[in-house]
Each structure stands twice: as structure tokens, then as C-alpha cells.
Amino acid sequence: MNVFVIVLYLAVMVVVGLWAARRARTATDYRVAGRRLGAGLYTSTMAAVVLGGASTVGGVGLGYQYGISGMWLVVAIAVGLAVLSLFFAARIQSLKVFTVSQMLQLRYGAKGGATASSFVMLAYTLMIAVTSTAAYAAIFSVLFPISRPWAILLGGAVVIAYSVLGGMWSITLTDLMQFLFMTVGIFAILLPFSLAAGGGWSGIRERLDASYFAVSSMGFQAILTQFVVYGFGMLIGQDIWQRVFTARSPGVARWGGLVSATYVALYGVAGALIGTAAAAVLPNLAVPEEAFATMAQEHVPAGLGGIVLAAGVAAMMSTASGATIAAATVARVDVVPTLLGLFGAPDDDIARARSEDASVLKDRVYVVVVGLVITVMSMLVSSTVTALTIAYDLLVGGLLVAVLGGLLWKRGTAAGAMWSMAAGVVATVVGMVVYGVLANAPIYMGLLASAVVFVAVSLATKPTTPEISQEWNRRIQESKA
């Protein structure tokens, strides 16, 4: 019965993609859903894209290890999303661009820093998609009698199919379905059944050590790092910004995002509670991340367990599809035109690829190619945790200061942004070499180096020209109207 529910879910995703394909008539429709999502669709699609395998399977696994304190990873994501929504989303939405790199070019006026940022952003979005693809493949390989490569091909084929058909419109509508599965599966089914399996809250408290019920049991440094890496990552990720670009108005971007952040925080608490209950019921699991699927299969009735597993797949697929179209957009709008420009491609061709009149057919080709690259990479990457850590460290350590500096500090300059990105990436990579990829030090080294260089170089160079500042200020003022 559980297998039937999963198969039906996958089929529905493809059907929704087919139905949404007719709405993707222009590049703006395909890349950012026509910039016309209302509060309901915006809220659900934003929540779906930020809640992936790390938040669902990983969040329950952290609850299994640390109890209530396991909520902090997802809560950090929620706080980052809330800060983005309250202080930056309206202004980002008003810029009417497609990528973070375009924002940097609009703000600073020089292509150097924007070009460098696009390559970092492409690497980040690819790694996010790879980790999500590998995560849902783990569930498929358990449910179906297939090996991991075939499980990756199955999931990848479904994500590519519905993403390529209607672009962001397909992803938005499938995200709405995935949001509903996640809500019902986690809050209405797995949470109450998990608590019941443990004998209720009192029964769980009797079975577990008191440390499971302390919010700080994960450790201060680990909790702080969650906020630095994942909270800050929410502020500048292309996959997140591309959802902000879909909002119909600055108000939708601001308040719809805040509602999403509230939902995400509650989702994190629910995951930690499920993991805590699993620690009481299944005390001998070798791998904490197995707690999610094991509770769904062994302590939830057949059929309902399928909905829970579909909720897990939904969380992973929504993140994978969002990261896929984000990577394809960065490649189409920023990376490939830049490379073509180096080989003498006409400026008009490059400008056309970046405009709202670009060919939807070519955008679909990019989604297919990027989707295939992600599928192959998912088969080759052995450690998704390592890939995810590298992606977030380079993103935050390299780009955070330049992006937020551009939004907050008028004196920031193109040279300051470019050199801060270089310094941040170099310091982060050096930190990984010296302390290890999974250490906390690299991200702090990158942020410190980037901030110092940004301020010093900006103050030592000429301010941004009035022409560039006027266009930037004109667009920003629209967010205040």
C-alpha cells in the first residue's frame, strides 16, 4: 500500500507539470512564474523549497540524537527566512532581475564581481540539488527493488519532467502539492503516531535521559554554526531569491515569507519531537537518519505510512526542483553568456539571453542539461553532507558580505565587492584545508576576511557613479511605495 501511494504521488507530479506547461509562455513565466504569485501560492512554495531532506529526514535524525535541541537546524533556516522576508525581500522583489549576480551588477555596475559570484552560485545550486536527489533516492531504494543508481534515475526523471515542462509555474504548483503532503504527513500523521508509540509525552520522558529535553543539548557552538551557515545561507541563495522574484508585490514577498518562516519553525519543532519519540521507541538504530523512514514503516498504519514517506520525498523533490531551475537560470543568464562573451559572441545575443524576451525553448534545454548533470553527480558523490557543507561555506563565506553590503551600505563599491568575494572564498578554502571540510572554522574565516576586505577596499576606492546609484535607487524606491 505504501508503494502504491508513492507511485501515485510521482504520477501526479508529472501530470501537474503537464498542466502547468501551458502557462509558461515567456522567459519571465518560465523563470519566475510571471512575477505574479499571490500570498497563498508564495507562502507554500517558499516553505516547500527551504524544507528539504536535511530539514525532514535530517531534522528527525537530529531529534533522535539530541532530542528537542535537534530543532535548531530548521529553526535557523526559519530565522534566516524571517530576516530575509522582513528586511530584504521587498527590496529584492522590486529589482526585477532573475539572479543574485544581476543584482550585484545593478548595484555596483561592474561585471567582475558579478561574474565571479555567478560561478560560486552555480556550484552552490548544483550541490543543493545533488544532495536532495541523493536523499530521496535513499527512500526509493528501500521501497522499490532497485539499486541506488536506478533510484536516482527514477527520482531525477520525475523532477526533470515536471520542471522542464512549465519551469517555475510547474514547480510552484507541484510545490503546493508537496506542501500539502508535508503538512499532512508530518503534523497530522507522523507526529501523533510517533508520540503514541512512545507512550505519550510522559512515557517518552520516562524512557529517555533528561538531556533529550534540554534545548541546549546540541552544544552552543554547534547551534551557533547552524545559524551562521543555514540562517545566513537563506539570505543570499539563488534558489531562495528566485522564489522572492515570483512574488506579485513587495508586500507578498515580505508577509508571505514571514508566514512561511513561522511554518518552517513549527516544522523543525515537529521533526525534533518525532526524533525524540523515535529515540524512545527505537533505541538501537545505527544511523539516526533512518529514524524517519523506520517510524513511518513500523509505527504508522499502511497507506498512512505511504503518505508520510511521500511527505519526505516531497520535501526533497521540492528542494531539488527549486535548485535545478535556479542552477539552470544562473547558467543561462550569467555563466554561459559570460563565457560566450570571452569568445567574442555578439553583445545583442548575450543581452537577449538575459532579457525577459529570451527563448523559453532554450530555457527548457538548460533545465534538461542541468538536470542530467545533477543526476550524474548524485551517482558519483558519496558524502552528501560534505557536498552540502562545501556549498554553504563557499556561498556564505564568499558572497554574503558583498550581497548584504550592497543592500545595506551605500558606500560599498564594485572593487570592494569583488575583492571581498575573492578573499572570502580563498579564506574559506584555506580553512577547509587546514581544519577540515566539516569544521566550523572555515566559515568564520571566510566571513571575517570578506568583511575586512569589503570595508577597506570600498573606503579606498571611488564611490559608485551617480548614474548607477540613480537606477538602483529608483528600483529600490518601488519597494517603499
TrEMBL record:
Its keywords, alphabetically, are: Membrane, Transmembrane, Transmembrane helix, Transport
The family line of this record is: Belongs to the sodium:solute symporter (SSF) (TC 2.A.21) family.
Q: What is this protein called?
A: Sodium:solute symporter
The protein's location, in the record's own words, is: Membrane
Q: Which PROSITE patterns match?
A: NA_SOLUT_SYMP_3
Q: Which InterPro entries match?
A: Na/Glc_symporter_sf (IPR038377), Na/solute_symporter (IPR001734), Sodium:Solute_Symporter (IPR050277)
> Superkingdom, according to UniProt?
Bacteria
What broad class describes the main subcellular location of this protein? membrane
Give the organism, scientific name: Kocuria salsicia
**CDD domains for this protein:** SLC5sbd_u3 (cd11479)
TM spans (from-to)? 6-21, 41-64, 70-92, 113-144, 150-172, 179-204, 210-236, 257-282, 302-330, 365-384, 390-409, 416-437, 443-461
Keyword Transmembrane among record annotations: yes
**Protein's membrane topology:** Multi-pass membrane protein
